[in-house]
Write a structure and sequence with these properties.
The chain contains 4 helices and no strands. 72% of the residues lie in helices and 0% in strands. By secondary structure, it is an all-alpha fold. The chain has one domain: Four Helix Bundle (Hemerythrin (Met), subunit A), CATH 1.20.120. The protein is elongated, with a radius of gyration of 19 Å.
């Protein structure tokens, strides 16, 4: 029953994991959109080859564009944080936490990541971004510690 929709903790994981997967994928597409809109911020020298979208490539397209690079940094940040949540969340479900704790930690992580993205997109200070990174990080660490405690008790 652990990994079925009859388990409300697993349902919480499914919802939060789906939101975070959409966030990762959408951020990648946002970066592409910004590159196309601004015609700058390309990442690799081979991107200067003429093609259907970039018919007139120019060397300056490889220069850093904050408009594009901000989205790229946000995507990289998601890729550094969300996979740990996806993996840890699954073993957390298997450890059978109380639904209240699962909701607090998993939805808390999602909220922290979404607010972190908003803070990044609106050019808030590192301190503001770090606050929401920390909240999300603590949620994942708490899930991991919970799993370890439950497993040690079973040994």
């Amino acid at each position: 029953m652990t990994f079925t929709t009859d388990n409300p903790v697993f349902v919480t994981y499914m919802i939060t994991a789906a939101i975070m997967v959409i966030k990762i994928m959408a951020q990648g597409w946002m970066t592409v959109y910004r590159m196309l809109k601004s015609d700058e911020g390309l990442a690799s020298p081979e991107d200067l080859r003429p093609g259907l979208i970039n018919k007139n490539p120019r060397p300056e397209q490889l220069e850093i564009s904050d408009y594009v690079d901000r989205s790229r940094r946000m995507h990289r940040n998601d890729l550094e944080n969300i996979p740990a949540f996806l993996a840890c969340g699954l073993i957390f479900v298997a450890a059978a936490p109380a639904l209240l704790w699962a909701n607090i930690l998993m939805y808390g992580f999602v909220a922290a990541r979404l607010i972190h993205a908003l803070a990044y997109a609106t050019k808030q200070s590192h301190e503001v971004r770090a606050t929401f990174y920390t909240i999300g990080s603590v949620a994942v660490v708490a899930m991991a510690v919970y799993v370890l405690v439950v497993m040690v008790e079973k040994i």
